[in-house]
Amino acid sequence: MEKLFRGVLRHRVVVLCAFLALTLVNLACIPRVVIDANMSDYLPTSAKSSQDLTLMKGVYGNDIPDARVYVTGISQPEAERFADELKDEDAVVSVSWLGSQVNLDEPMEVQDQDTIKDWYDGDGYLFQAVLSSKADQAEVDHIRAIAQGLDGAQGVYIDGSAVSDAANLASINTDMTKIMAIAVVVVFLIVMLNTTSYLHPVVMLLTIGIAIVLNMGTNIFRGTISSITQLVASVLQLAVSMDYSIVLLTNFGRCRENTDDQFEAMVEAMTKSFPVILSSAAVTFFGFLSLAAMQFLIGADMGIALAKGIVCSFFSITLLMPCVLYMMRNLVERTTHRPFIKSFKRMSLVCHRFAVPALVIALVCTVPALLASSSVSFTYGSSSNISATSQVKLDGDVIDKAFGESQTWAIMVPEGRWSDENALVDDLKGLPTTKSVLSYGTVASSALPSELGDESEVKQLLSGGFSRIVLTSKIPDESKGAFDLVDTVRRICSEHYGDDYHLVGNAVSYYDIRSVTTSDNLTVKLASMLAIGAVLLVMFKSVSIPVLLIAAIEVSIWINEAVPYFTGETINFVAFLVIDAVQLGAAVDYAIIYTEEYLARRRRMGKREASVTAIEHTAQPIMTSSSILILACLGIYLSVSSPMISQVGMLIARGALISVVEIFFVLPLLFEVFDWVVRHTSYKIGFLVEDKGPKDADQAPEAAR
């Protein structure tokens, strides 16, 4: 490796040009990556709702209504004109309104009043639309402008899942700018405080910035990534990759103390850092990749992007960063400063003094935290990822107040079995939550040949040998009532059609997402622990060390995940699943840094002295990296508009803090307590054999001091 790194440093200009060329190519690719905000698209193909949705789109060419528009102050002729203009919009597939439900040539007083109330409340008219998958925030704004231009229009309110998705996508660029700005400021300040040159944080940010561009640009080969991945991947890559650059800088500083030749010092630092960086990167890589074990495909989407980011950061820091540092060596020398934090000796003694109480607290909290973490309440849909102050949420509140909360589902059954269909429609109408049921039998007559019906209506209900029933229910989008209704409707459909029916709707998709992610939670935990455990087993050639490290970190994860349960907070399921892989991956990096130092010291000193001095010598890189992760994620929690991303920020910040406490207070004591076990379950560990008796116990603390 020394030979390789010597060659890399000699050909530093070639290395720099190669990275810059790759960066420019990937920078051009980033805008071409398609972002998807619809979580239903990531259901596994084996899920019934996913299969039903695919089939229904293939047969009818459109989905069920996913946008509501409420316009107040307009007359009936203006409402009719607006409905016609909506139908002419390229992004609008179909439109339903009062004129689709009743004959407007007859006075409203003689029409069915329940139907009237569903579409007209005396102040304005409600329109339900199906928007194409390409509809974005600009199209939503255009629809709003059309409505506002109607004669007499007083208020225009628009909501729905398609509108929420468009709003999420529109906020990505703003949120990403905030996230990266916060991360850059935090990294610069923390690294400056913990290194000896004002240029060190600049070099680190430049190197990892290139790695982030490489990762984001190569997403083009995947075609589409989720909006969640787009938001969190870059900042997590930045925060986690800091460990590797800090290790390199720390080793370079130590090597400079032994020689004035910066070339030789850098080669030595690269050689010493490589095993640690490789180990940490491998652990984090497999931790992130474990997300791909989820049935819910958002796991694979995030896991692949995050793992790919670690690979990009690994090569950038091991190859590019040393070349940049060496090329800027004169500037670095001229911008040196004294270290702001000179020693962590006092901190190491405090950690050792309070280690036993910390271990007792951890043991007491373990079982309650594990039970509480498995009982947290989750949200699944895109609507839960909308800020309470956003336009979509405010508009939705107005529409719900005027017409009540509602959901529209579609049921596709074989055409021609009219007695079964009519019986099914009657059963659906009898449900207490039903607002309306639309079928061929309700708009025409099952006895009337389809050729004689209104062509536009018939095409939406009869197609490809199927008949479609549209069910609108008075229930919130995501609630226990909605999930219970999914079971009820599926049971009723099965009574009439067996398995020969297809049910589609937002709550139906969320129901299947909930079912899939319930098992995914355990899968991700096991996959990440086994993958990381295997890497640690090979790295340390020990059976017990991986167990100690993972046990300490898993307790910190359980405590972190238990907090929402005790505070009564509802968490987005993606945020909750991500924390397993992210916290375990990041915390293991800290544990590896401490363990490497402890093992090296344990080979030449007693266990107690080794544990205390190892804290002192690893506190700076661990505190630097964890401080960046904690402060950056707290900034994200406080600044972004997305509730889900805000939750991710809080979970990671809190998790990193708890993990660091475990690493400094609990892990050293575990190594002391299980010293004999580690010695006899590790290959050629080479521990110093201590003399038994009080002498060593009395001298160890003095040696540490």
From TrEMBL:
InterPro entries: MMPL_dom (IPR004869), Mycobact_MmpL (IPR050545). It is a multi-pass membrane protein. It is found in: Cell membrane. Keywords: Cell membrane, Membrane, Transmembrane, Transmembrane helix. Residues 130-327, 486-671 form the Membrane transport protein MMPL domain. The chain crosses the membrane at residues 179-195, 202-225, 231-253, 274-298, 304-328, 349-371, 522-540, 573-595, 628-645, 651-674. Its main location: membrane. PANTHER family: MEMBRANE PROTEIN MJ1562-RELATED, MEMBRANE PROTEIN YDGH-RELATED. Belongs to the resistance-nodulation-cell division (RND) (TC 2.A.6) family. MmpL subfamily. This is Efflux RND transporter permease subunit. It comes from Olsenella absiana.
